[in-house]
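Reviewers of the previous submission asked for a worked example of the structure-prediction workflow described in the proposal, so we include one complete record here. The input consisted solely of the amino acid sequence. No template or homolog information was supplied to the procedure at any stage.
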Amino acid sequence: MSFESKWKNYQRIIESTSKGHLSANEFQQKMKARRARNNVYTKSSGHKNPSVGSPFSTKANSFGKSNIYFEGLNEADQEVLDSFELQAELNPAAFEGDVMIPEIRERLLEIVDDFIDGIDFKMDVEDITLTGSLANYNWSKYSDFDLHILVDYAAIDADQDLVKRFFQDIKAIWNIRHNIFLKGYEVEVYVQDSGEKHISTGVYSVQNDEWDIKPEKEETARFPIDQPNIEKKADDIAFQIDRAEKLLKDDKLTDALDAIDRLKQKVRNLRKTGLSKEDGVYSVENLAFKTLRRSGDLERLSTLKNKAYDKSMSITQ
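From that input alone, the workflow returned the following structure tokens.
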């Protein structure tokens, strides 16, 4: 990004606050209060008012190095971060030991049959799989049944991007119309290209009732959960969503739409970068993405995009 672009972005941030300073933003006020509690910027012998004297008597510590860094987190924030910790066993709502519960498997297959019945053409299903945290040891109350129907996109049409968009639309309509829960966990249906590379460390074939990729708890434990950096990345994007909301509220529609589009791309890049790393699904970037999803910030961003578009297209007078 050029210096001119960075400067314009900074100007937008300044203009989006009511007092012309970042500290007026609600998120910055929260961070300021947390820093004051943790006392990581000033020492007790220093002057907190720069007009009186030097604010530091010794070198100040940087934010995030305090041993009580998480003191300011509310229970909901900490609960989201804690949800990434490993469990002692696979989810007992879905598995008996390492085999899927027959009742759950049969119901998932029924759901797939109903989903396929709603598609106007025949397609060869190569496999039906369960992936994600419910097929691994990092499940939590935020988990859902990520049910993937594997088909060969190229066998349907040479334009595989068109096929992908078609199935994305079908999936979106299905998930909007249906709200199915099994043992308290929501079912999400996807149609995946069978040629797509597996990223998950746990993949269970619901169709064949066996593991395609069996998760290993020891392998999962190789990648510790870096809570401070996860929170830092998630908080940065949450702050930018706050700023986009403020722009929309102030009727700065062009700036709001621009900020929202850049944020959505940033979120996509965040997960893509994380999944490309050695630690993959356990990377800081991917877990920051999941933090934003579990906290409701990604849904807030999507809703904001729709609101901004509707507002930009409306005529009030």
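The first strand starts at residue 95 and ends at 96. We consider this example representative of the routine output the project will generate in years two and three.
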